[in-house]
Write a structure and sequence with these properties.
With 758 residues, the protein is α+β, with helices and mostly antiparallel strands. It contains 25 helices and 19 strands. The strands form 5 sheets. Strands 10, 11, 12, 13, 14, 15, 16, 17 and 18 form a 9-stranded antiparallel β-sheet that branches. A 4-stranded parallel β-sheet has the order 2-1-7-8, sandwiched between helices. A two-stranded antiparallel sheet has the order 3-4. The relative contact order is 0.10.
Length: 758
């Protein structure tokens, strides 16, 4: 195919992606999500098309900038960055134009500037040291050993077997296993070496001969070459002003040592073999994915601890070793223990050196006129130990835009070397379960600080909804959060929300016993694209509910919900000596008499409490705004500043019973009233019992309820803060008291491609 035909074919594919973003044509609905995937597949099968696709995407981006078509900027930019990560042979001028474009986007509001900054940081290094993005991605995702780049990533795929059909679970598991069978450590190391040399040397690299040489190399020789290439790339990338020429010289030496000076010279001179040899495709392996059926409440925490358990592959600082990172020793102190020296400064009081410390029973210590006394042990509370921030990665290498720069390291010399990408499949019920696990995880961290210093936790969500049923038997809407994410981020809607039909279609296909059953694994490729490029979180407020039962012997439990709390009226009543006697004069009728006390949500944020009594047949408390509400509503938290509790609100719908009297007699009508509140207290007034359903999950049902209270869930606080106040100044104690009275709300982030697009 000639170059003009190649560019024309790629241009048609790019225009199809743009039409999908700009119009809701019915003809395009069936192919949503396929255009982007097919575009990347074209350059994956033929890497020589990458420079042409980069030029086309860059031209469309500059056109969107000049015409102010902002809705296509982030999707095109993510598509371009994904191509540049895998491509070789792209001219330096294209890298510089892309970098300049990202720098111009910094003048736009969020999320455009945050996504552009993330891309610009990566492009700056890739321009000077080609192949850096690919190498770091493969090393981290495949957990290849490297002292210069010790970061490790893993994707945890959680599926609730009670919410997702066994056929879907087995189909996803087969596709993941089939893809990972070909991704051995040796194959990944060969990919890294080949990509680095081709990216640096360009046409001077004899790609076919190089891959044949690497294929024939034994394991020990391959590891030596791999570490040499990684060292050359990382050492050059770590320099303040990396030199592209110096990087080229280092990799030329490695290339000559592999193929010999004659082959290297033939490649540089553009010999016949080098011209006729078509560069073979270098795949980008999918990340290491572990598949989990979520059956245990503590399963998420256990899997994260096991992910951090191998400590032999990394060198930990003294501050990090002092913490209970494994979470397996309950008697270990939470805070780091330091020693407050009480010596006099006299030379004989000081230790002789690190290698010359005297044992307590040595003769020199017994006869010494002056002895060193035992130091007074004092607990040191680093501020970040008690005020837990987000679970972000280290700054620079795994930069996550939109967050304060100080969140990268909690302790001096301690950075988060592990990234856990937790991906859940299911509906709103699964997200409610994820919120429970996230709350439990944060609460556990206040008791035993074992994960936060080393782990960057990223949450992802792919909706898997049941097939549509007839209207008479249709279940309540279970995909409200997915619909909200789709309205907030159009690229999430086109790329992730469209996976649901494809997953069901895959589950219906008969399993293939051949080794080539996943030649083009569409679902796995989209999952991989999502976890790699979805770096911008949308924050959701978690709400806590305290429940009081009619039986006073039961302690009032507390639970949380993320999306919805449904209240229904039971037919049964309390006994006469129950919790709340029925008021006299209350007319019998459908529903129950309820007392509702709530704080009205006002734009002025003034506290205005309202108390009302009414008869209702049910209530629904939704934490998500409806489709007719602006997406930039109270659910979203700007990444740079956490909101105050009154910036979030619940949308409450009360089905009220209105009594009317006329000549025909007494009648009742039903009307729905809605209001917004930050917190609410509801109590049954006429002995009617209530049933609460959290996050639409029948497994989280509470019956025989007479009263409940709902409020934004605060951040879990450490029990050591009271003791810490003894060591602070009066001003610091007052500041601590102020922050205690105004707790930060607990927000659960779910990653998307751009966050909320205004």
């Amino acid at each position: 195919m000639e170059s003009s035909d190649v560019e024309l074919d790629l241009e048609r594919s790019v225009q199809a992606v743009l039409r999908e973003l700009g119009a809701q044509a019915p003809a395009l609905q069936s192919n949503q999500g396929m255009w982007r995937w097919s575009l990347h597949k074209k350059v994956e099968r033929d890497p020589s098309k990458s420079p042409a696709l980069v030029r086309i995407l860059l031209r469309e981006l500059e056109k969107a900038e000049s015409e102010d078509l902002r809705h296509v900027i982030i999707p095109l930019l993510h598509t371009l960055m994904y191509v540049l990560t895998k491509a070789t042979g792209v001219a330096e001028e294209l890298y510089r134009r892309t970098y300049a474009f990202c720098m111009r986007l910094l003048t736009l509001p969020a999320p455009y500037c945050t996504v552009a900054l993330d891309c610009a940081v990566r492009l700056k290094t890739e321009t000077a040291v080609p192949g850096t993005l690919y190498q770091r991605l493969v090393i981290a995702e495949q957990n290849l050993p490297s002292e210069l780049y010790p970061y490790q990533e893993r994707v945890f795929l959680f599926v609730d077997p009670e919410l997702v059909s066994p056929s879907v679970c087995s189909a996803l598991l087969l596709e993941i296993q089939a893809a990972q069978e070909q991704q051995t450590p040796e194959a990944c190391m060969r990919h890294v070496v080949s990509h680095a040399l081709q990216a640096a040397l360009g046409e001077a690299c004899h790609a076919g001969a190089l891959q044949r040489k690497l294929q024939a190399s034994p394991r020990h020789a391959l590891e030596r070459i791999f570490h040499a290439v990684v060292a050359a790339v990382e050492q050059m990338a770590s320099e303040p002003s990396p030199s592209r020429e110096g990087h080229l010289e280092r990799l030329e030496e490695i290339y000559c040592s592999l193929l010999g000076p004659a082959a290297a010279a033939r490649g540089r001179c553009g010999g016949h073999d080098a011209l006729q040899d078509r560069p073979p495709s270098i795949p980008l392996p999918s990340p290491y994915i572990t598949f989990h059926l979520w059956t245990d409440e503590e399963q998420l925490w256990k899997e994260l601890v096991l992910f951090l358990r191998p400590r032999s592959q990394m060198r930990l600082s003294a501050d990090l070793e002092a913490l209970d990172l494994q979470g397996l020793l309950p008697d270990r102190e939470l805070a780091r223990v330091s020693v407050l020296s009480t010596d006099s400064g006299i030379e004989r009081d000081l230790p002789l050196g690190a290698d010359e410390l005297l044992a307590p029973s040595s003769p020199e210590m017994e006869h010494g006129g002056l002895q060193r006394k035992g130091g007074m042990k004092k607990r040191a509370w680093p501020l970040d130990l008690l005020m837990l921030g987000g679970w972000d990665g280290p700054p620079g290498l795994h930069r996550r835009t939109g967050r304060p720069d100080g969140d990268g390291e909690l302790l001096p010399g301690v950075s988060r070397l592990h990234t856990a990408r937790v991906l859940v499949l299911g509906d709103d019920r699964m997200l409610g379960r994820l919120a429970q696990a996230y709350h439990s995880l944060r609460k556990r961290e206040t008791q035993k600080f074992c994960l936060t210093p080393r782990l960057s936790l990223q949450l992802y969500y792919i909706p898997v909804l049941a097939a549509k049923k007839p209207a008479a038997s249709r279940q309540p809407e279970l995909g409200e959060l997915a619909a909200f994410l789709g309205r907030a981020d159009p690229w999430y809607q086109n790329t992730v929300n469209t996976l649901c039909p494809a997953i069901h279609k895959l589950a219906e296909m008969p399993p293939s016993l051949g080794s080539s059953r996943t030649v083009d694994p569409f679902i796995l490729d989209v999952i991989t694209y999502y976890v790699r490029m979805g770096t911008q979180p949308i924050y959701f407020q978690i709400y806590t509910v305290k429940i009081f039962f009619g039986d006073l012997s039961q302690d009032p439990p507390e639970d949380i919900f993320l999306t919805e709390l449904t209240v229904k009226i039971q037919d049964s009543k309390l006994p006469k000596d129950g919790f709340s006697p029925r008021r006299k004069g209350v007319a019998e009728g459908p529903g129950a008499e309820l007392s509702i006390c709530y704080q009205k949500a006002l734009l002025s944020h003034r506290a205005q409490e309202v108390t009302v009594s009414l008869r209702a047949t049910g209530l629904v408390l939704k934490a998500l705004p409806g489709s007719d509400t602006e997406v930039s509503g109270p659910t979203h938290c700007p990444p740079t500043a956490a909101p105050l509790p009154d910036h979030t609100c619940l949308n409450v719908s009360v089905t009220e019973v209105v009594k009317t009297s006329n000549l025909a007699g007494r009648s009742f009508s039903v009307v729905t009233n809605t209001f917004r509140t930050a917190n609410i207290r509801i109590q049954s007034q006429d002995q009617r019992l209530l049933t609460l359903l959290l996050d639409k999950d029948s497994r989280r049902t509470f019956r025989d309820v007479v009263r409940f209270e709902v409020a934004p869930c605060p951040e879990p606080r450490s029990g050591t803060q009271k003791s810490k106040a003894l060591w602070l100044s009066s001003h610091q104690q007052k500041e601590m008291e102020r922050t205690r009275t105004m707790p930060k709300p607990l927000l659960m982030p779910i990653n998307t491609f751009s966050g909320i697009v205004q």
